[in-house]
Amino acid sequence: MPQIKKPRGTADILPSETPFWRQVESICRSQAKLYGFSEIRFPTFEYTELFVRGVGDTTDIVQKEMYTFTDKDGRSMTLRPEGTACVCRSVVENGLYANALPLKLYYLSNFFRYEKPQAGRSREFFQFGCEIMGADTPYADGEAIFLANSVIRNLGIKNYVLHLNSIGCSNCRPEYRAALKNYFQANYDKLCDNCKGRLETNPLRILDCKEEECGEIARSAPKTTDYLCDSCARHYNSLKGLIKESDIKFIEDPKCVRGLDYYTGVVFEFVHGGIGAQSTIAAGGRYNGLISQLGGPELPAIGFAAGISRLILAMEADNGEIRKSEKPVLYIAPLGDKAAGFAFRLCEELREKGLSCETDLTGRSVKAQMKYADKGGYDFVCVIGENELISGKARLKNLKTGEERDISLSTDEIIKILI
């Protein structure tokens, strides 16, 4: 029969790769906890209307990239393409806004978009995201940015720069939008077909176009920061002051506008210099109107998301190393049926005391077991045969250094030596 392969744009995360993923996920969780965030989980699919209303019907995500299907009751459902709208829906539906504010929530989830697969971009992808709801100060923006930076820094990633901008609020955006529209209208014939359509629906998206000619035109476009109202300008300048007091390297980037309709005010991207075209490893911004748009109260909010696979690419590019587990892993190689039974029981006792260990389950020779332990990346190996059962002692070998020593075959002594 023909072999069945994975769908295009998806990936198997193999045992040789999962240590990278576990490290990234562990650091994301630990840093979020340090900043006082709690985890939230939400459904894999939602009503399509959530993303049409929340993300925006003029965005590429809604127009081109969503995996949408009709369920058996004729309702339109969509595999989640991003996390912020899902979090906001959950906050509104469950009344979480009635709790003490600000709400500080994080998620580690997989998402789905029908995009052209390439390095750092796939049709099923994984993100770490954080949302702060109920705070409208530059300090809230700063905390989101500093948390993203702390995750990146703790992963050993070095070659990155924060791109910062403000796209204004509902008060100052119309004037900027009009100026932008007039500018691009004068260059209409040079725009790509997509951007000609964006000129009427969302001219800010033209600034983010990847077509070379559109990029050239966008370089001389009016800047959002020249049209900010007094409130937005004060907010933005205060945030810049906070960042300048830190060690975060940043630039002001007028082309940083983000691709989703719900963004207002401050937007940002952490851009890595060595992972190719998909160089943004974390990004986000403020979305003060989204929660009310989804039926909740007027609640200011800011958040960001970081792509797990892109963080791993950046780790590899910067020689980020996986931190060694604090607890070693032991392999017990039995010789004969009696030793196999003893090793099986000993492993259970050691696991109950917190030591990761394994023993043979297939009846292989000691030589084959040693080869297995070496290939499996175990830290220590202990061979137990009839003589060891009689004496109650065995040789413990460090597979990393080659050193050997005698040990007693008691759980307490093994734990004392290895943990």
Characterise the protein shown here.
It is a single chain. The mean pLDDT is 92. With 419 residues, the protein is of the alpha+beta class. The longest helix is centred in the N-terminal third of the chain and has 17 residues, at 18-34. It is elongated, with a radius of gyration of 27 Å. It has 15 helices and 16 strands. The chain has an 8-stranded mixed β-sheet. It has helices at residues 18-34, 48-54, 60-65, 84-93, 138-154, 173-186, 193-201, 212-218, 230-244, 290-293, 308-317, 337-352, 366-375, 386-391, 411-418; strands at 38-39, 45-47, 68-70, 76-79, 103-112, 124-133, 160-166, 250-252, 266-272, 280-286, 301-307, 329-334, 356-359, 380-384, 393-398, 404-408. Helix 1 (18-34) runs antiparallel to helix 5.
Tally of DSSP helical segments: 15
| Widest β-sheet, arrangement of strands | 1-5-6-11-10-9-7-8
* Strand element count: 16
Uncertain runs with pLDDT below 50, 5 residues or more? none
Measure the end-to-end span: 49 Å
β-strand amount: 15-25%
How would the global form be characterised? elongated
Note the main sheet.
8 strands, mixed
Output mean pLDDT.
92
**Helicity range:** 25-40%
The secondary structure category is: alpha+beta
State Rg. 27 Å
How is this fold's topology laid out?
Elements (H helix, E strand, L loop, with lengths): L17 H17 L3 E2 L5 E3 H7 L5 H6 L2 E3 L5 E4 L4 H10 L9 E10 L11 E10 L4 H17 L5 E7 L6 H14 L6 H9 L10 H7 L11 H15 L5 E3 L13 E7 L7 E7 L3 H4 L7 E7 H10 L11 E6 L2 H16 L3 E4 L6 H10 L4 E5 L1 H6 L1 E6 L5 E5 L2 H8 L1
Parallel strand pairs: 1-5, 7-8, 12-13, 12-14
Antiparallel strand pairs: 2-4, 3-4, 5-6, 6-11, 7-9, 9-10, 10-11, 14-15, 15-16
Helix pairs in contact: 1-5, 1-11, 5-9
